[in-house]
């Protein structure tokens, strides 16, 4: 990205591998964002009116086109993020799978249902429906520029909303290409519009009249700004922020599988994964064997070959600061070190026995750095894993106690004997706690996130003695109190 002047009318996106300019995009101002939201509001009435059965074939047609275009879109992702083509393909495959699931399950999750009216409401028929919120504003990051926003876009559309999407300033071309595929299937309906620009464009989306909800994915600091802007008009928010995900390795773990998962989880996408592995707590008994295996695998990787560059130039300095601090604080570099930071490309770094107060342990690194710390037992591993303000994902490698350990972790998602596996299962909700945010994308919860529950109580017949009327006889209340004590006062 160049032309950082916020007043600029256009800006350029670059290939982070070479610095080559690959696209020019408008900087949408508040008026342009409002116009997009107004168009989305008009389209929202039509889209909601189609109902689940009317929307399903249209979303299926989009899914099918996306599946056919995987290679084309993957090419755009590669160009703006620098990640390897197969990683971009995997991101798209997951996104298409989520779109399919959201479209097929929306009616089951959000369709009108009856609920029991209870004893006091015995004369009523009670139903819950889940109408859409209207227009959803989606603000996305650059690291998984299709998969991450699609966790909101697909679920919001399936729930009957229209979407105005603000992609990261680093990946505007990806956002545009994604929206173009839906426009190709439904040319007359602006179901998914893209507004491009810098933070100001995102802020304008938060403040636009008619936005029913903002789904934000990005850093915790920006998430707080988004929430503050949305608070002005009481616009609800879904906040998906960063993490400092831990992996716990127990004594009975398959150490080869655990090391393989740790290296993929820590190094793939150059470590620029919100649910990537950043800290590993391995029980002492198996620490040497595990660490040797991790070092062997990580040492065989090279940036620019195994994974891409740092997409955000400023991130390189953060990674270098964490590497230096980990070593200065007393950690032992097993793979790489400060010299692994080569401008935009950062080779794998593995540092063992890093004090827990080092920034390499406390802050999100978002780069190919793995901290491997040995602990006396699983209890200590759990205590340290939970000792962070973040709480996004985690992974556990253990044979006997995998799920038991998972249940003790303070976070939104856990992979047992795997890594990041939860993100590929559309039925599982995705999101965090604490500084990692709140609200959920994916799964039933992800569909409900983009709907407003509406309760209806329909009287089927009048009660012989009215309770909510000024004509209520005092004797009726006495009887009701007696009955309540009998029923609930035990
Ligand atoms: P940022 O927080 O920098 O930006 C996120 C988005 O918000 C961008 O589109 C950005 O636009 C926009 N934005 C910036 N300022 C404002 C503002 N004042 N009001 C509204 N929108 C604004 O995050 P990154 O793009 O750097 O993404 C990396 C972060 O995302 C990491 O912390 C990572 O962990 C997290 N992440 C979380 C995921 C999750 O699901 N929990 C998934 C993926 C990433 P612009 O780019 O133009 O500044």
TrEMBL record:
Pfam families: Aldedh (PF00171). PANTHER family: CYTOPLASMIC ALDEHYDE DEHYDROGENASE (EUROFUNG), SUCCINATE-SEMIALDEHYDE DEHYDROGENASE, MITOCHONDRIAL. This is Aldehyde dehydrogenase. It comes from Pseudonocardia sulfidoxydans NBRC 16205. GO terms for biological process: gamma-aminobutyric acid catabolic process. The keyword Oxidoreductase applies. The active site is at residue 240. Residues 1-22 are annotated as: Disordered. The keyword Oxidoreductase applies. GO terms for molecular function: succinate-semialdehyde dehydrogenase (NAD+) activity. Keywords: Oxidoreductase. Residues 6-456 form the Aldehyde dehydrogenase domain.
């Amino acid at each position: 990205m160049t032309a950082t002047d916020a007043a600029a009318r256009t800006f350029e996106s670059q290939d982070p591998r070479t610095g080559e300019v690959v696209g020019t995009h408008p900087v949408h101002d508040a008026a342009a964002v409002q116009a997009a939201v107004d168009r989305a509001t008009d389209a929202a009435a039509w889209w909601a009116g189609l109902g689940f059965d009317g929307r399903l074939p249209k979303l299926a047609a989009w899914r099918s086109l996306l599946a056919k275009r995987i290679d084309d879109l993957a090419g755009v992702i590669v160009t703006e993020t620098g990640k390897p083509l197969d990683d971009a393909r995997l991101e798209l495959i997951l996104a298409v799978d989520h779109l399919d699931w959201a479209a097929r399950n929306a009616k089951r999750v959000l369709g009108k249902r009856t609920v029991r009216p209870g004893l006091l409401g015995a004369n009523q028929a009670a139903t819950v429906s889940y109408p859409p919120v209207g227009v959803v504003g989606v603000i996305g990051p650059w690291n998984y520029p299709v998969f991450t926003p699609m966790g909101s876009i697909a679920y919001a559309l399936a729930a009957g909303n229209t979407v105005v999407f603000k992609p990261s300033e680093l990946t505007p071309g990806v956002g545009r290409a994604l929206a173009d595929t839906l426009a190709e299937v439904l040319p007359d309906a602006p179901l998914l519009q893209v507004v491009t620009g810098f933070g100001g464009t995102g802020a304008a989306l938060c403040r636009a009249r008619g936005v029913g909800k903002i789904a934000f994915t990005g850093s915790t600091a920006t998430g707080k700004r988004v929430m503050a802007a949305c608070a002005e008009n009481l616009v609800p928010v879904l906040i998906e922020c960063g993490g400092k995900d831990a992996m716990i390795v127990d004594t009975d773990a398959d150490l080869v599988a655990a090391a393989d998962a740790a290296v993929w989880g820590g190094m793939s996408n150059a470590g620029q994964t919100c649910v990537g592995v950043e800290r590993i707590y391995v029980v002492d008994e198996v620490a040497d064997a595990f660490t040797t295996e991790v070092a062997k695998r990580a040492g065989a990787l090279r940036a620019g070959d195994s994974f891409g560059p740092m997409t955000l130039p400023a991130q390189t300095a953060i990674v270098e600061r964490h590497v230096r601090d980990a070593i200065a604080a007393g950690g032992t570099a097993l793979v790489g070190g400060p010299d692994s930071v080569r401008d935009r490309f950062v080779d794998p770094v593995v540092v063992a026995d890093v004090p827990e107060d080092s920034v390499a342990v406390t802050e999100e690194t978002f780069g190919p750095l793995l901290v491997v710390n040995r602990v006396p037992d699983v209890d200590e591993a759990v205590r340290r894993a939970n000792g962070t303000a973040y709480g996004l994902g985690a992974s556990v490698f253990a044979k006997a106690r995998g799920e038991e350990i998972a249940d003790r972790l303070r976070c939104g998602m856990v992979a047992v004997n795997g890594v990041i596996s939860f993100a590929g299962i559309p039925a599982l909700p995705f999101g965090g706690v604490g500084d990692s945010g709140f609200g959920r994308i994916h799964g039933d919860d992800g569909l409900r996130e983009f709907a407003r529950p509406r309760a209806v109580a329909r009287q089927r017949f009048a009660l012989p003695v009215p309770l909510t009327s000024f004509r209520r006889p005092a004797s009726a209340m006495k009887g009701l109190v007696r009955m309540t004590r009998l029923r609930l006062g035990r």
